[in-house]
Amino acid sequence: MKKTLAIAGALLATSIGTTPAFADYPERPITMIVAYTAGGGTDIAARTLVPYIEEELGGATITVLNRPGAGGEIGFTALSQAKPDGYTIGFINTPNLLSIPIARNARYSLDSFAPVADIIYDPGAFSVRPDSGITNLEELVAFAKENPGAVTYGTTGIGSDDHLAALRFERLTGVKFEHIPFSGNVDVRAAVLGGHIMMASMNVSETVPDAEEGTLVLLGQMAEKRWDGAPDVPTFQEQGFDVIMGSDRGIAAPAGTPEEILTTLSEAIGRAVQNPEFQEAAKKQDLALSYLDSEAFRAHLEQLDATLHTLWDEEPWVQE
Question: Residue 71: which region, alpha, beta or left (left: phi > 0; alpha: psi -120 to 50)?
Answer without folding.
Answer: left
